[in-house]
Amino acid sequence: MKKPLHVLKFGGTSVGTIERIKMVAERVVQIKESGINLVVVVSAMSGETNRLMSLAKEIDAVPDARELDVLLSAGEQVSMSLLSMTLNNMGYKASSLTGGQAGIYTDNLHNDATIRNIKTDSINELLSDDQIVIVAGFQGINENGDITTLGRGGSDTTAVAIAGALQADECQIFTDVDGIYTCDPRIVGDAKKLNIIDFPNMEEMARKGAKVLHLPCVVEAKGKSIPLRVRSSFSEDSGTLVKGSECLHGVCGIAIQKDLVFIHVDKLEFDGLVKQCRLLGIQVWTVIEDTNRQGVVVKQESFDKIALVFGDKIRNSEQVSSLTCVGSKAEGIVQHSTEILSENAIEIFASTTGQQFSMLLLKLEVVERAANIIHETFIVARDLVEKQDKLAVI
Ligand code: ASP
Ligand code: MG
Hints:
binds magnesium ion; six-stranded antiparallel sheet; 11 helices
């Protein structure tokens, strides 16, 4: 009988030291010994991508995009070879592959490339030799053979794309938290782990800044109906299963995005600014257009790029953070959340809603306090009410 195939992905903290790489290897071997073929995708050792990035920025605030990819892709190559060596040392056949060697082809958008297709021949050849295949996350090559990277956090996307291309039986994302939470537990102590979350809600959470899974990874997994399991490398907990195409939760969680900048422009310049963002491939977080101000909100890193070409037309810029409630009923709570925050003397800069979310823009200093209040009101308290309702029915 054909052995099942699993794709596992280990994040930066999981491979952050030699000790931890050895722990990952133990886990990989345990799964391999249970009769499962494995492709293992790894991130760079924790802190490494940031370190490489700051080296580049010491030379140029906006480094050449192609060269930056050559540099950043090195981080994953360090961890893939160290893991492969560890497995070899333990007596297992393993080989590491860069994105290019693994046949991962992307478009040409350096620093934020999208995987176009994967030629699986080299991975399949190693698998048929019963090897454990280790692949560098976050990278591929374009049609010229130049190295590209997939945007920060991109290794998750590598794992899902490989799982899709190989029609793997399972894709597990090992990280330093034990699953998807209703809010970042470092900010909201009461945040709860979800055992299961549907793809539409997971996608919206990732889109609005929840960091556990890379957005393109969720989009890809959703599109190909590949269930994902997000779990901790450091425990046996079964984590969170991301599965299902129907939006089930009313308000399932709160996503926080710091490091945003509101760029104010004069009314006449607004269209030009939006166009410039599009030309530069910059994602507009949200648009603010009311009687006395207009502009766009973008991530800090994008702001630096815009400032370079549009700087003279920017009237003012302000640091902001967004707090977004996600779920099928989230749109309807914006009024209530605005009122609650005002009662707590938290100023709201602007708000927007969409089919499955309500977003508040706040000053960085207050966003964590606001997250706790909103979480308490719409997730903890609601959950209690629902539980009581259920008990009442019984
Ligand atoms: N090493 C890359 C980063 O830090 C990609 C990843 O870890 O997923 O963003
Ligand atoms: Mg990540």
